[in-house]
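queue> holo job accepted (heme C)
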Amino acid sequence: MESIVSFKSLWATTLLAAALGLSACSPAVDPDVKARQDSMKSWSDATGIMEDMIDNPNTFDVELFQDQAAFLAEDAASPWSHFKSQEAMGNTTEAVWVNAGAFEAEADQFEQAAHELNAAAQTATVVEEVAPAFNDVKASCKSCHTDFKVRRD
Ligand code: HEC
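queue> job finished
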């Protein structure tokens, strides 16, 4: 019996090693780059859900919208501490590092927009009550990306 158990755990270890081996083949991603990119990806998911409802007002689900807006407001400050060192460049432009004040201003503006959207969402009953604040959030994403994120397309 015991030998079966240890065989199983050996097998599990082998699988784990294989998985680790696979990830070691892709270029090592700095933990700060990963943390801030993961955060931004989750913002993209949240704004995508909200945008769909704004584009199709008959699908407006106030609770779902509120959840996304609350998430965005809660997470709005989390990426910034992960922009520590230019060595962890990711897809940032040079401007993040040489023009840190302007980058911080964009970050502050975004946080404010995300909190305003959340405030509007928590009392909204129709999509018209959240659309302007949502558009401000989207404009803020875009405004920061224009100068501070490398364009891939
Ligand atoms: C203050 C600046 C700033 C704001 C505001 C901002 N971003 Fe970003 N975003 C960046 C930077 C810089 C990067 C590149 C990060 C990296 O590669 O390390 C990025 C990367 C991304 C990425 C790519 C992530 C990946 O996996 O490579 C997505 C998606 C994204 N942002 C979505 C958003 C959305 C959606 C918003 C608004 C809700 C937003 N961002 C607001 C600066 C910002």
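queue> Residues 33, 36-37, 40-41, 43-44, 47, 90-92, 96, 103, 106-107, 110, 137, 140-141, 144-145, 148-149 surround heme C (CB under 6 Å).
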